[in-house]
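$ run holo --ligand "adenosine-5'-triphosphate" --emit tokens
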Amino acid sequence: MKIIAFVSAKGGTGRTTLVANLGVILARAGYRVLALDCDPQNALGTLLGMLPGLRVGIAEGSSSNEIIEYLAAQRGGVPYIPFGARDRDDLQQAESTLLADSGWLLRRVLEIVPTGTELVLVDTPAGERVWTERVLEMAHAIVGVHLPDAACFATLPVIAVILERRCRGSELPPVVWHVLNQMEPRNELARDAELLLRQHLGERLVPCSIPRDPVVGEAWAQQLPVALHSPMTGAVAALRELSERLLTSFADLRRHTATSLQPARES
Amino acid sequence: MSTAKLLSASAIPFAGGIARAVRLLATVVAVVMLTLVMLTPLELREQVTLSGMLFVVALVIAHLRHRASTLILMVMAITVSARYLAWRISATMSIESLDLLLSAALLFAELYAFLVLALGYFQLSQPIARKPLALPADVREWPAVDVLIPTYNEPLEVVRATILAAQALDWPQDKLRIFVLDDGNRDDFQHFAKDVGVGYFIRHDNHGAKAGNINAALARTDAPFVAVFDCDHVPTRSFLQLTMGWLVEDDRLAMVQTPHHFYSPDPLERNLRVFKTCPNEGELFYGLIQPGNDLWNAVFFCGSCAVIRRAALTDVGGISEETVTEDAHTALRMHRCGWRTAFLGVRQAGGLATESLSGHIRQRVRWARGMVQILRVDNPLFGPGLTWPQRLCYLNGQLYFLSGLPRLIFLTAPLGFFLFNAHIFAAAPVMVLSYALPHLTFTLMTASRIQGGFRRSFWGELYETVLSVYIVLPTILALVNPRLGRFNVTAKGGLIATSYFDWRIAMPFLVLFGLNLAGIVAGLWAASTGRQQLDAVLINVGWATYNLIILSTAIAAAFERQQRRRHARIAPRLPAMVERSCGHTVACELSDLSLSGAALNHAGDEFERGEKLHLTLRLGEESLPLPARVVSTEAGVLRLEFVTLSPERERFLVRVLFCRADSWIRWADDRTLDQPVRSFLDISLCGLRGLKQLVISSTTTRGTHDGKNDCP
Ligand SMILES: Nc1ncnc2c1ncn2[C@@H]1O[C@H](COP(=O)(O)OP(=O)(O)OP(=O)(O)O)[C@@H](O)[C@H]1O
Ligand SMILES: [Mg+2]
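-- output --
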């Protein structure tokens, strides 16, 4: 099982969008994926179909059997575990456990993620939060998500610090990728930002920046990941390429043919 | 030294005095034995048995995919052909005057063909697949290069891409200078050069045509290396990195030549509809002949897509201006001065082919005249400095262009029999067959084996036939007086507005076709009335029929098919993205791209004609949206036309189109090896199609005419 964490210093960059859509794309390609929401916002559920009325989640006391039942009841494209902990007290309690016991989250993940899962995509809260920190500690790969604006440079050091802390003293440091989301290729400022970011990050910045496309939001309004809603858009094509890029991080992962990452074309 | 290095894998196993003596002895014995085989006359039965046995052995050998088996085939083929010729001279020459005259003419053509064949076997005995050599790791050691782009009357539209691509060459920017050498002295060129920041030279007289143009530029530049590109040959970014390695390594290496690759169909390919499926005329030359020359250090300069060492050019007084093929002549002179040359068979530039058959022929007539001029003014057989293999390779290159007369003789030889009752072979028809068939079969088999993927069987005959009528006079004139004739520039980038039949060009083929057809009819008539022996008639009918097939293909090639597009298109299958004005993005695959527009496959949205949008192309990590307009949308194919591109965007487009290092590398990868029978059927089919078209086009014109008369 490989854990991929999606992080960013600022909110609204597209972590949730990426987790949901990469989940769809990888699941379609035949990988056994699971999306895990570690962001107290519980936003991932609006894309992957949270089942209403059930108090289930990573931050809840749900047992692994409950989780398995919950996953079985889902009909969406990707199995997904919500964050849970909808009220303040629950959240505070979970956070204090997390602070006190650095191994708790990993144990919890190993406990509730079904055996046979190959990839776990983890959504995190923006900035330096204890959840993010713990997720990073267990991640095998980390994807920094950025926007092509002036602020992305301001926040780059934040990410750098977070990653630095994660990698220091680790004998198996995670693979780090960066991706630019909501790219506007016609916008000079955005292109400059991309160029600068590339100079800073080099090869770690994947070449397939994801274009900004209103259909992402339109799909969300229908509670669908865009990869299911409009698989032939440029944004989804870029996401597919990103998924291929991420897979290169894991040499031991069972390979699927390149074509299996192609969308099934409806005739 | 460089050749020795290249051959190290196949290095001769034993050296030293004894070994040399053994090898010499073996050679002498082999030559004596082969000569015996060539010269011993045999009776019919024995000749048939011998040929049959040799054929079986050859089949087995040809089956082995080993280089040595090609060499063995060559030796067998030359032996069989020599046997035929020996018999032809000793046993078939008639004594009656007309017969003798025609027989001698044919013999001349056959001797010519044999000589070219033998030289060809020698030249192609071991083509070298030279690989690029790595440059020094320290970029500071890379030498400076001047890129020269001579132009005379080509439109700026054709030259822009070449200039922009030259600027995009992967080479230290402070060591790369680009110069446009404009013999046309045109304002738009000057402005463009200034806008994009390249050097621009003009001259006050256009003395010496292209050679003079380059020489004038050499006097005004100083980098130790010059790369020359015809103005329509767009280099890929890796051109210098791939070619310069050898030049840096070996300081007696004067030049590295790379292939001329054409991404648009030449007239034969277009008119016969064989573009990309059948290798074109140039592929044999760049795929095989130049690699063959490389073994003998006899690669010659082809005027473009090459890097030359300035010191070598200075040594021979610049590019030669005496002949109209200045390129080959310059290389010959460098070889005479002891310089080496090399060929790197990696397509590193793409260009436009000539647009019409007449233009295509005109270009080759120039080559023919130039090569024959060299034969006269600087004959490679004589003069200092050359090794024997070099002399032979050059000789073969030049003799090739004297094929006009022999080809015409082959095309008309059966007529002597049909129309004048001349017996060219004073021998029994079966005897002729028993000697000629093995000779022809072996020649065909060996050629097919050597040429493999670079030329289809019988297509060479077509190319020669198309040229023959047109090069006969110029080459003979050049033989008589090499100082005649000027340089003519080959027109490129033009359009064929509507399809038409080029009667002027086709006329000689039509006449020859008519003559052969008339001959066949006359012959069959004579046979049916018993005035001629049936077997002799049949042999000649077979021959004339073969002529008809080749001639009809030549006729078919004169049907100029419409070429509508201003820019030749190429099809890099690259992912691309369209962004619509509403901001929605659509994933696409490029199926067609040119400097003016693109075609895309997509499975997404509905587009409207005239809709404005942006096409984002990616090149490595870079991507750039190009403003475009929808021209048409049908069944998942979107056709776009670019709206005025800024220089930055045009440069990017040029780089996507032409400059990727692998732009042309996979061009012919899916080619299969030659299959003579297939190829014969193909060429016959092309010919038949041409005849059908001819009948249709002549009846339809008459049809409308009749229609008018019918009007009350
Ligand atoms: N490629 C895109 N094109 C257009 N809109 C996008 C794209 N990616 C994300 N968005 C939009 O941007 C907004 C933020 O996306 P998302 O919620 O995935 O980001 P996030 O980083 O998870 O944000 P948060 O910090 O709130 O968790 C959403 O409205 C989403 O629809
Ligand atoms: Mg989110």
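-- notes --
Chain B touches chain A through 22 residues (CB under 8 Å).
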